[in-house]
Amino acid sequence: MTAPAPRAPLPTDVSIITTYRCCMKCKMCNIWRYPTEIAQEIRAEELEILPQLKFVNITGGEPFVRRDLDEIVEVSFRKAPRVVISTSGYQVDEILALAEKFPRIGIRVSIEGLSTINDYLRGRDSGFDRGLKTLLGLRRLGIKDIGFGITVSNNNSADMLELYELSKNLKMEFATAAYHNSYYFHKDDNVITNQDEVCNNFYELIDRLLEERNPKSWFRAFFNLGLINYIKGNRRLLPCEAGTVNFFIEPYGDVYPCNGLEERYWKESFGNIRQVKSFEDIWYGPQADKVRSLVRTCPKNCWMVGTAAPVMKKYLRHPATWVLKNKLRSMAGRKIERGKLPLPFDVGQDPRQGDLREPEHTGEVETFDNYSESADTDRRHTVTVVAVEPLAGEAFLLRTTRGGYDFIPGQNVSIALHLDYARSKDFSICSGQADDFLEFMIKGNRAGTITPLLRTLEPGAKLDLTGPYGEFFYRADEKCRHVFLATGIGIGPFRSFLRSFTIPDYLVVHGVRRKADLALAAGIDPTRLVTCVSREDGGTLRGRITDYLRNTELGVRDFYYLSGNPFAVKDVFDILSQRGVPRERIVREFYYTY
Description:
- By secondary structure, this protein is α/β, with parallel strands linked by helices.
- It has 15 helices and 21 strands.
- The chain folds into 3 domains: 13-332, TIM Barrel; 381-469, Beta Barrel (Elongation Factor Tu (Ef-tu), domain 3); 482-590, Rossmann fold (3-Layer(aba) Sandwich), CATH 3.40.50.
- It has helices at residues 69-79, 92-101, 115-122, 127-141, 157-170, 195-211, 215-231, 279-283, 286-296, 305-314, 317-331, 451-455, 492-500, 545-550, 566-578, and strands at 13-17, 55-59, 82-87, 106-110, 146-152, 173-178, 246-249, 254-256, 271-272, 381-392, 395-401, 412-417, 420-428, 437-443, 462-469, 482-487, 506-512, 529-533, 541-542, 559-564, 586-590.
- Helix 5 (157-170) packs parallel to helix 6, helix 6 runs antiparallel to helix 7 and helix 7 (215-231) packs across helix 11 (317-331).
């Protein structure tokens, strides 16, 4: 009688794809073209079903577009001692605010090259600058688990070496990948065509890693050898065992063994966490056996850290033997042999795994040398300053020409001085859709990088806009009341709503510190306005918005829009949730100054 197959142990690692929404427009990834519906994305409480783990990676899309990311992090830390968020690093203040709240968090910033190459590949101006600003800000906060990584393609392998040296000088972790095709990326044409150049740069990186004193770097050298092997189209050096110690959860709750699946080969999930009572129902179900069988014979030869690292640890003697041999070679002043790749290490894997090659790529590959700005890249829109007017305290109103610029009320744009993209900041539009000008309500920050400059601009000065971005939209529903809750200049997008739409039933609740700050709400119907002044008399009540909410009746079917200081927004959100307002009827926007 044949003994039953041993039961797979529970996993130790998970990658949670929190959203397919993304603020980047990367050349090697089309996630941004297929954003998830916010209301359908997995929620923090749904992740409570996960078992105890060793490691949680929170990724996207861009995780920091999730307004409930802190709640997801809280659950993740209850499930695992180590939690790392993968991010573009673009939303500097949101990242630093979350790191202050969770000082044990790990942050990995994706940087695809030095400034010019990175911003081209990422499709956003100032992406490199913001990523670096994020890393330096995390260092100042004392966050220890920080680093950055690069996905190598046809255009950036030389910059990989520069980034490696930067990581050494900053004493930060540095990770590498080569671009792949996947349902996850919505790409099937990610093919490295200049293999000699790219592989030579990887060999150079391997030599530099072997010269280090840290054994971890030596094993990273082996991992990068696996990337060369992948680029050359060979079978993996070690087998893929995705779906045994690690798994992925996508934004709608489906559990997959990895994120490298392609429907043209196969794509099946273990199941959906929303449809079971326990995680064991997914992990030990008959569908799980089928998926693991498909993994064992998967034709792809992917080499990603999520599936390579576990087997490097499991079959340690093979990478360790290679490391010992080549470390001794490095100590003798000799470089690794170019072009001499080991055969796959035989650990009993199915010979069919990785035996099919990607279909030959026949399409034209866009290179940096022949690049011209395309529809996939944010186009800069130049406007002219019309006026800069004081509002209250440090706040001022910036009015510019519009020149046909299109936006949806509630969205924001990134503003930079003309041709000075190193200094930019996102600001919400507070003008109406029908206005022939653009207006921005801005809080001055004398220590900021851009707001002090904007305040001193004269009429006629040029500004460059990119965007618009964001999903802080008015939800048209005449059957309910719309409650707009703002602190300070967070009232800006509500001014845009009210100037753009006819809203039959609404209430604006505005919280400020001083009576003079009530000027920010000028023009709003006073019969629809409640003002909360926290530090002196003069408003509808003395106190904060939270004081008003605790002492008023809340309609659970109303729509609530929260805009302003992130800590105030979080407190208001908590009160609404505790009072029974469904999450899907709460829309949030955060305001920062720098």
